[in-house]
Amino acid sequence: PMHPAKKTWDCAKPPRDDHSAPSWLTASEFQDVPSVAAAKVKILASLLRLSTRTVIYTGAGISAAVVGQAARSGQNTVGWKTNPRAAKPTFTHYALGLLGQEGYLHSWVQQ
């Protein structure tokens, strides 16, 4: 059975100030329970194996763990600001790099 995601950061504001959004769409962050995340990973893996032209589109969010910043928290206190050369790749960077090396990603668009 699917379980609802757990809210890990609550925010009533929209994701961005420079774009309109419906009132239900906020910058709150959620995390799936492990069983749901595992099911989603299996589905994604199947889709990647079937795809012959996979393009990923990512933004600054894949580096959020490095800079210590949630979507709109305004926090940016660790990582590259204090010492740019000390910043390390996130799990997402490594995972996407490995998928590319293994031939599962064909293009990567970064905003």
UniProtKB/TrEMBL annotation:
Superkingdom of origin organism: Eukaryota
Segments of this protein annotated with the region Disordered: 1-22
Biased composition (Basic and acidic residues): 7-20
Protein name: Deacetylase sirtuin-type domain-containing protein
